[in-house]
Write a structure and sequence with these properties.
The protein is an alpha/beta fold. The chain is built from six helices and six strands.
């Protein structure tokens, strides 16, 4: 059994005049949301054997907020393939995770992360968490999965269960959508 935690980058700023999407930084709300998720990680005793992350600026800045708030020390393996990747590509990246890693944190982007959950977790109609992901996988949301595999190289469709899905607004209502 392997554990996989998926973290979508926090809310980025569209106000900065960057030339490339890859270079967009977090906005203030995103920084607060990432720190709240870091505190959640600490409070729930989550620990990761490996961190696989997109090298996009908004992912780097998300981890810079999560790390101190979680009390953990991350040594991310930056992988350009994770940037705006499809579920198929994300599964290929996970197949290359360290063999001795029991719990991997992957930090990236939508729609790939959301689609990865849909591919890994069968829709049996009973998962409230999966239903929440179907509605929306918002920025800085954390999905925790259990995978019925012994080796990362064995990851495949329908091998997982979604144990918990946590959105920043679940922890602080002020971090919910602006229109609420």
């Amino acid at each position: 059994m392997k554990k996989l935690t998926l973290l979508r980058h926090a809310k980025s700023s569209w106000d900065d005049a960057v030339t490339r999407d890859f270079d967009r930084p977090l906005n203030e709300k995103g920084k607060r949301a990432a720190a709240i998720i870091g505190k959640f990680i600490k409070r729930n005793g989550l620990a990761f054997d490996q961190v696989l992350a997109s090298p996009a600026v908004r992912v780097i800045e998300t981890l810079e907020q999560v790390e101190p708030a979680s009390g953990l020390s991350f040594e991310p393996q930056w992988d350009r393939k994770i940037y705006l990747a499809s579920s198929v590509t994300l599964m290929d990246v996970l197949r290359g995770a360290k063999a001795d890693a029991d719990h991997v944190l992957m930090v990236g982007h939508n729609p790939g992360l959301e689609d990865l959950i849909f591919d890994l977790v069968p829709d049996d109609g009973s998962s409230e968490a999966r239903g929440a992901v179907e509605v929306k996988y918002p920025t800085a949301a954390l999905a925790e999965l259990s995978l019925k595999i012994e080796n990362w190289s064995d990851i495949q469709d329908s091998c997982g269960t979604l144990d918990r899905f946590t959105r920043p607004r679940d922890l602080d209502p002020e971090l919910g959508p602006d229109y609420i």
